[in-house]
Design brief:
365 residues; alpha/beta; 2 domains; five-stranded parallel beta sheet; elongated
Length: 365
């Protein structure tokens, strides 16, 4: 074959390659721009590494340098979910009016209302309506819930944030997320075995060069999607835990030191701040509902229930020690169909929870 023929073939193949790559770039550009929301985390990592400003308007939580993560002011479905101060619900002034009774509710997703799209339908918001209709003074019930928070995050947030809104009453509703920490190995009362800062997922210079191509942007968005950018949770899925090992951990009293001391310190700080504090037990769904809605807990459901009930007992003991009120949530009062999963309730369940709290705290007002 003549040399010029080989050159022509090479040029032709190069042109075809450029055409195919360009076509692939166009297709990947369209896919990247319209990535499904489930790949939003991976796309955020790509954009951060490219030095682009990331839109946090749809993120419910954002990382924090020393509080691990906090609620982010955002709207969903045109509804304000978290206000500018990071509390779920309407805006309010940090400076409290002298004629106002301010109640702060601290807890995880069962306080925040994780599966509830409307902040006004959470038990915290319903409680405010009940209290306001019963008293002439202005009542503010502020939702300080933080999804998946343990007593560690709630305590830290109280120290640096919540105490400065000067609540008259604090309701602490927790125990389930702390129970999860007991299930995992290498327990540390500071929960360092269970939580850590999110990975920055910084890419190497060569990889950043690849991201000039939308083909690689799309690939990296999908590849890095499960990287914990805001925070890193337990080292692996609950479904991978060995039941016999978990049984040993949950029956070991030393596995509850962190929860006990976090709640104890919160009580002491509340008293220093002249706030009355009430502890509220954690409510689990019946065992069969947990098995059906949380496949990751099926093998260790008894151990999970044991750990959460153990935390309730710890709160009861702390209430006796400090002579403060304890709110018991009796599972028998809640209909099975009200549970959306292992612990979250529909609106009927939220209403009953609000009613139980209302009946117990109205004497304090």
């Amino acid at each position: 074959m003549k040399k010029d023929s080989k050159v022509k073939i090479l040029i032709f193949n190069l042109i075809i390659l450029i055409f195919l790559w360009s076509f692939l770039e166009i297709i990947c550009t369209l896919f990247y721009r319209n990535l499904p929301s489930k790949f939003r985390n991976g796309k955020r990592i790509v954009e951060i590494n490219l030095g682009h400003k990331v839109d946090n308007t749809e993120e419910s939580i954002i990382s924090h340098p020393y509080l691990l993560y906090v609620n982010n002011p955002f709207h969903k479905d045109s509804v304000l979910q978290n206000n500018s101060l990071g509390y779920r619900g309407p805006e309010f002034s940090i400076k409290k009016d002298s004629n106002t009774i301010r109640i702060l509710v601290l807890g995880g997703s069962t306080t925040y209302g994780y599966l509830n799209k409307n902040p006004e339908k959470t038990w915290v918001a319903v409680l405010q309506k009940k209290l306001q209709s019963a008293y002439k003074k202005k009542i503010e019930v502020i939702n300080g819930g933080l999804n998946y928070a343990t007593s560690a995050e709630l305590l830290a947030s109280y120290v640096f944030r919540h105490r400065y809104i000067n609540p008259d009453i604090i309701i602490f509703h927790e125990g389930g997320n702390d129970a999860m920490s007991v299930l995992f190995p290498d327990y540390n009362p500071e929960y360092t075995h269970f939580r850590s800062n999110g990975s920055s997922a910084k890419l190497r210079p060569g990889e950043k060069f690849l991201l000039t191509s939308n083909v690689f942007k799309l690939f990296y968005s999908i590849w890095l999607n499960n990287t914990g950018v805001i925070y890193t949770s337990q080292p692996f899925d609950c479904g991978k835990l060995v039941k016999s090992d978990v049984q040993i951990r949950v029956t070991n009293d030393s596995s509850y030191v962190g929860f006990n001391r976090n709640v104890d310190l919160l009580i002491k700080l509340a008293r220093i701040d002249n706030s009355k504090i009430i502890l509220m037990g954690f409510l689990n769904a019946p065992k069969d509902i947990i098995i059906n809605t949380r496949t990751d807990l099926r093998n260790i459901v008894d151990e999970y229930i044991y750990a959460s009930e153990k935390n309730n007992e710890i709160m009861k003991d702390l209430c006796l020690l400090h002579k403060i009120e304890y709110i018991q949530l009796n599972q028998d009062l809640f209909k099975d169909e009200w549970f959306l999963d292992n612990c979250h309730l529909n609106y009927e369940g939220e209403e009953l929870k609000a009613e139980i709290v209302f009946e117990q705290i109205k004497e304090l007002l």
